[in-house]
Structures are given as structure tokens and as C-alpha cells.
Amino acid sequence: MNVITKTVSLPDGREITIETGKLAKQADGSCTLKMGNTMLLATVCAAKDAVPGTDFMPLQVEYREQYAAAGRFPGGFTKREGKASDEEILTCRLVDRALRPLFPSDFHAEVYVNVILFSADGVDQPDALAGFAASCALACSDIPFECPISEVRVARINGEYVINPTFEQMKEADMDLMVGATEENIMMVEGEMKEVQESDLLDALKAAHAAIKPMCAMQNELMKELGTDTKREYCHEVNDDELKGQVAKECYQKCYDVVKQALEKQARAEAFDAIKEEFKEAYAAAHTDLTEDEMEEKYALVDKYYHDVEKDAMRRCILDEGVRLDGRKTDEIRPIWCEVSPLPMPHGSSIFTRGETQSLTTCTLGTKLDEKMVDGALEKYYMKFLLHYNFPPFCTGEAKAQRGVGRREIGHGHLAWRGLKGQIPEDFPYTVRLVSQILESNGSSSMATVCAGTLALMDAGVPMKKPVSGIAMGLIKNPGEDKYAVLSDILGDEDHLGDMDFKTTGTKDGLTATQMDIKCDGLSYEILEKALAQAKAGREHILKCITDTIAEPRAELKPQVPRIIQIEIPKEFIGAVIGPGGKIIQQMQEETGATITIDEVDGVGKVQVSAPNKDSIDAALGKIKSIVAIPELGDAYKEIGKKGY
């Protein structure tokens, strides 16, 4: 075995060790990562050739946590790991988003990255190590890849930025960011904050990037030592330079003219398609000597070249004339209209519409029994605030069946959840569930979910600390040019054809969550600072639209919301209220119609009584108090028979 070991240090002196050549040697690249007693195995395999007709990067990233890593059995009947949890999927997305932009644009072979947690000490957080491990596996392979990356978690704890903090340290953090970067550029950011300022976010990114640079340098050393700095040769595309030039010459100005017309989404798409079809018809008429199969190959090339022309026309119109696809200025927000209580029976509901993006969101208030149990390999806990995001095909006019929840829906819902969760009081007794149904989409439905979620929460009477709004920003910047444009409230096409998708959520006092994907090199902190300032102005405009619709949470819950009363009882009476095998508490629930839950917290019994009406709650409270009451001199009691309750 040719085992090679490399070590890199974090700013606080802790070490991360990478080892290759010992495990999973039949993969194209593999390595183990060790930090303390936490160990991950990362592997990567790529197909030798691309599937014919593939014109994208078919990358699949998997991250799985083995329960044995923490000495635990999985739950469920089968007692084995099943499908990926939401938390594992979110980690997959973080790794994917950092890796994907760095594969060559003409490389189309299927690539599978697997990261498995095999040992966990409960001290260090393994999700922050997955991106580093995945990139090291790629570095150990001959798979074409632009340059190594790494990911770290950066948290601000007592005013200091800490890289890859422990689980225990995170309890004191007011910022929690995952940052992916190359040695030169930041590629991906996602995280949550407790109403921090934009300058704080920039400082956190700088601290994270400084920690990532030596990790990337170490991977370059590893590649040279292994001889994998020379990557495999491939040919996944056949090009026709003459046809490419012809498409640009005959279609560019027509596309530019469509961009300047400021058409709506569907009309614009039809206009662009008409230009392409007109070119294809003219090309076919001029090349009758080609066979049907040869013409189909040419048409596929036309589609690819035309996409580049369309992209260039849109970008140049913004950079040269400041005109966007829908006619707005670069910092202009689309028209917004909001409504609360559009649905009569949900506990809270709202509609938030911004341009051609629309969310119908409902809020449901439940009891402690409605909390979600998260039973992961490392942690087991309950969630009192849930947010689910649904993106049906009809919201973009697609004629296809609706399948199960995808990774994108989980990721978008999680970002909105992070943006809102800090504004729900910890002592609010209800379990809260938001469901965002995206009815129309043309740009940042996740940020529409944040805004609609705020409206629905206030409509339900949830006493939010402060309302939250969100916005998606974009960037147009061509390589080698100083000229650039920061775009507020981007359209779907501006996201697809631009260089950055940058989302922020926040209250009037600061940021609560962010997500950033950067597709270009050389993005300076000055440009990021401008984007953040422009995003803040946009959020404040959207926040005013929200508060103009409903200024503050409703003072009273709606009649259909179950009422909840919480009381505390001495710890020694918990068993008496529950009774043998739960007999007493079950009997009280049957007789009163109320739902009763009891938890021991800090040596005190926390009792929660919920019911649709006050009489049921009063009856249940009366029975509980009769059990826990301590007799005092002068109290009068009624004698009942042995068969009485």
C-alpha cells in the first residue's frame, strides 16, 4: 500500500488529517479525513464517457451518517439506515454547490461523490468537514477538475470568529455560516444569524476564506505527490465553429432587441424560441444535402450555441444600457401585493406576490404532541417550528406529474425556516407549521416564502419579535471587464444567465439568514459589500409592503385554534398525575376532552393542557390541581366512596 498522509491546522491549532491509499482503492479517488475522533470516508467515481446527448454536468453527491459512528442503533422496525434524512440532504447540497462550478464546462461524464461518517465523538461537527473530504477525494483522482476547494463552518462566539466550532461552542454563537471556497475565490455561503450587520457577514467570510486557503494548498501538494495533477483526457463535445459563428451573427441582434422589449416571462420565452426556430428553418433550407440524422446533430449544436448568444445579449444589455429583461433598473423591485386570511379555516394564511412569483402560505398551531422528532446518528431532539415548501410543476407552466419532495424543495424550505425561526419566541407554547405553496415562480420563491411566512405567522397571532423579509440578488460581470451590475430581486432567467445568486433575509435591525452561489472568478469584497447594501435597501422596501398589509401580529388567536394553558407542578407529583401505566392522565383526557402533556424540565414538571374550548381546559386543570394540591390547615375536602375518582 502506498499510504500518504497530510495534515493541516485550523487557526486555533486543532488539526485535520487526510489519508489516502488505504481504503476504497478501487474508486477513482478516495481518502479518509480525521479530526479528533471524528472520521469520514470520501470517494469519487466518474464514468469513462458521457452519455450521448448530455449537455450538462451530471454530478451526484451523497452524504450519509452511520448510526454506528456514534454507537447507536437506527430507529424503526428494520433497525438499519434508510433514505437520507433532511439534514444529510442539506449537507449534500452544500458540497454539490461548491464542487459543481469547478468541473470543466465541456465535461459531461457522470460523477458520483460519496461521503460517509464512520466515527463521531460528539465534539466536532462532521457536516463542516464533508466538503473538504470530497475535494480531497477528487484531488486523489484523475477526474478533470479546475482546482481544489474546501468548506468550513464559521461562527461568531463572544465577538470572535471561530472556524469549525464544536457542538458545545455553537450554543453561544450568534452567527452560523458554512463557506465553500477555492484558494482564490469564495464559491458558496449558507447560514443563519441573529440580526447581525452586513459588515459582520463580510468579516466572517474573510475569516473563513483565510482558514480555507491552507486546505487548498495542501490538496495541491497531495496531487503533485500522487501524480494526479495531470487529469484524464476526454472529448464529450463535438463542435462546429462555422455554425457557431453563423448563429451569433444572425441571432445576436434579434435577441438583443427582444431583451429590450421588456416582455413578460412566457412572451419572452416564445420570442426567443421563435428566433431559434427561424434560424433552424433557414439553415435546413440551405443544407438540403444533409441527412435527417446529420440535421438533428446540427440542431443540437444550434440549441447550445443559441443559448450562449441569448445569454450574451441579456448580459450586454444590462452592462451597456442598464436595461433588464423586464425593463427594470438594476436596483428596482417588482410590484408587490399581499393579502392575509385569504383562506377562512386555517389558523393563519397569506398570499405574497412579487412580480410573477407567488406564494400561498398557511400557518397551523398545534400542541406539544405535534412536535417533530429528529432522530439522527448524532443528535435526537424535537422541533417546535416547521416549514415546508412545495414547488408544483404548474407554477412554471410545466405539463408534468408532481412527484415526491425533492432536494431543491428541502433546501429552499430550510433557508426560509432559518430566516424566520429566530423571531418566534422560545416560550410560545404552540408547535408551529408553515406550508408554502408556490403558485407562480419567476425568481426566488424561497424569499417569497419568507415574506408570506411572516404574513401568515402574524395573521395567526404568533407574537413574532419582528417581521422578516427576504430578497434575491444577482450579478453580471464578464471576465476581464471592470464594469459590473448588481441586480435586485432577480428573475429566473437572470439567475440562470448571471454570475451570482445571493439571497438574504432579515428584520429592520439585521440579517437572519443568507445563501450565496457564485459562478465567476475574481469577485471582490467591494462588490459583495455593494450587493449587501443594495440587498438591505430592497429588503426594507419589501418589509414596508408586509407591514402595510398587517402591521403587527393579531392580538387574539382565531376561534378555530386550540387553546393551551401551561402550568408547573412539583417534580414529585409528575408520577401521580400520570398514574400507573398512564392510567390517570388518560382517564382525565377522556373525561374532559383535553390533551395533557407533562415534561420534566430543570427539576420542575411542565404541564401543557390544550383543548378546543375553555370548559375542557378548566375541567382538566381542576383535576390536575386536585392531585397536586398540598393539604393545609383549614382546607375542606369532600369524602367520596372507594369507587369514586
Distance between the termini: 75 Å
Low-pLDDT stretches are: 640-645
> What does the average pLDDT come to?
92
How would you write the strand order of the largest sheet? 8-7-9-10-21-20-18-19
DSSP strand count: 24
Summarize the main sheet.
Answer: 8 strands, antiparallel
Helix content: 25-40%
**Multimerization state:** single chain
Computed Rg: 29 Å
Strand content: 25-35%
Class inferred from helices and paired strands = alpha+beta
Number of helices: 14
Shape by Cα distribution: globular
What's a concise summary of this model?
This protein is an alpha+beta fold.
Q: Can you put this structure into words, describing what you see?
A:
The protein has helices at residues 86-99, 130-139, 167-170, 198-226, 241-260, 265-286, 292-321, 407-421, 445-460, 492-497, 525-549, 574-578, 583-592, 614-628, and strands spanning 4-9, 15-20, 29-35, 38-46, 59-65, 111-119, 150-157, 160-163, 173-181, 186-196, 336-340, 348-354, 357-366, 372-375, 380-383, 385-390, 431-440, 469-477, 484-488, 500-507, 510-518, 563-570, 595-601, 604-611. The protein has 645 residues and is an alpha+beta fold. The strands form five sheets. An eight-stranded antiparallel sheet has the order 8-7-9-10-21-20-18-19, sandwiched between helices. Strands 1-2-3-4-6-5 form a six-stranded mixed sheet. The chain starts with a strand and ends in a 17-residue tail after the last helix.
